[in-house]
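testing teh design pipeline on a random one, pls ignore if ur not involved
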């Protein structure tokens, strides 16, 4: 058994959730916040049999897209904000960060 932890952008969250249900996967959905952009995202936790890991990864891949976004960097620590003028920077956001970890034991009560 494996535990799939998928961190996705909020924009992809509902589409992924619906696709997982449609394909028969059960998942726990948690609100989370990213460190770099300080933007909201969603973390899905999915317990799955070893032989179905590739299926759930395909569903995640098909429903979580990378996109470009302009962001304003956070002001540097220790400097005055009067002299700091943030210039928007284009970064890639979205997609999914996915971790697949082994499960030693699973109990359901």
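output:
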């Amino acid at each position: 058994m494996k535990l799939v932890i998928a961190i996705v952008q909020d924009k992809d969250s509902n589409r992924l959730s619906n696709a997982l249900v449609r394909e028969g996967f059960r998942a726990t959905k948690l609100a989370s916040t990213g460190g770099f952009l300080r933007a909201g995202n969603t973390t899905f936790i999915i317990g799955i049999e070893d032989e179905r890991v590739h299926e759930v990864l395909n569903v995640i891949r098909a429903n979580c897209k990378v996109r470009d976004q302009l962001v304003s960097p956070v002001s540097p620590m220790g400097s005055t904000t009067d002299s700091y003028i943030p210039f928007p920077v284009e970064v890639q956001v979205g997609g999914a960060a996915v971790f697949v970890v082994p499960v030693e034991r699973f109990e359901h009560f």
